[in-house]
Design a protein that fits this description.
mainly alpha, about 280 residues, Ribonucleotide Reductase, subunit A, 11 helices, binds fe (ii) ion, single chain, globular
Length: about 280
């Protein structure tokens, strides 16, 4: 029998749900809390997904033949399917958003596309995988916020809430796949931590680049009111980053694993809501 390489709990099933979302109505307006900045922030996040998720798939797929644990192999397959549907849905989202609101998709995606091209050519595959494991942790931390009690999408447009929570659930299910593959191929702790520092910086930069373009097109880039509400939205009492520092920092621990934080109840809770 081959050695276990997957450390996702056995009762967590990674299952792709091939969903389609009708977002046209919502994307016309400020769908997140009717707030200009909050909407711009999530729209800018969405812009990074199709390129990012394709990168995640590629960096994990590169090691497909190096994994001997059938459980992890199966999880990798489900991970590819989940991310493929996410990127399809977010591509449609992004194209629709730009068509409806006059944003320039090429300008929004350009810097990320160029950097990804550079990384593909110049960065060793193992380091690319470390980057994926890092961003998957960032995603999992935000997914927990999206599904948890604070319900950051409580006041969002229902169609948008459905999309973001569906994506969050699947991110939570597969949160350890890239990490387990990285560990199985002998990735070092040092490289993993360095990848997290870099990824945090770049992801923040990419989102801010998107926010800037969007607010500029909306004609509110220099509005103090918009930026004030932005600070509150990020760091305030109901802010989306509130409470995320501790789980973020966990990644830097020597013996870290994504499932040390058991978030499976959030998946079950979401499943239950869906059946009502
Ligand atoms: Fe995803
Ligand atoms: Fe993911």
């Amino acid at each position: 029998m081959s050695e276990a390489q997957s450390f996702t709990p056995v009762d967590v099933a990674i299952q792709p749900r091939n969903r389609q979302h009708d977002l046209a109505e919502a994307l016309k307006g400020d769908w997140m809390r009717k707030d200009v900045f909050a909407t711009a922030w999530f729209n800018a996040m969405s812009i990074t997904f199709p390129l990012g998720e394709q990168f995640f798939i590629n960096s994990v797929r590169h090691y497909r033949d190096r994994i001997s644990d059938p459980k992890l192999q199966e999880e990798m397959r489900q991970f590819f399917s989940q991310e493929a549907v996410h990127l399809r849905e977010h591509r449609r989202y992004n194209e629709m958003l730009c068509a409806l609101r006059g944003y320039d998709l090429e300008k929004l995606e350009g810097p990320l596309r160029r950097r990804m091209g550079w990384v593909k050519k110049n960065v060793p595959a193992r380091e690319q995988l470390a980057g994926t494991a890092a961003v998957e942790h960032l995603t999992a931390v935000l997914a927990e916020k999206a599904l948890g009690d604070s319900g950051i999408f409580a006041d969002a447009d229902p169609a948008m809430r459905d999309l973001w929570q569906w994506h969050s659930v699947e991110e939570m299910e597969h949160k350890a796949v890239a990490f387990d593959v990285y560990r199985a191929i002998g990735g070092t702790e040092k490289m993993r931590r360095a990848a997290m520092r870099r990824s945090t910086l770049f992801l923040t930069w990419d989102i801010l680049h998107g926010v800037r373009h969007i607010l500029k097109c909306d004609g509110v880039l220099w509005s103090p009111k918009v930026w004030f509400s932005g600070v509150r939205f990020l760091f305030g009492k109901q802010g989306i980053l509130k409470g995320t520092w501790a789980p973020y920092k966990d990644f830097f621990r020597e013996d870290f694993h994504p499932w040390q934080e058991d978030t499976s109840h959030l998946i079950t809770q979401w499943e239950l809501q869906q059946s009502h």
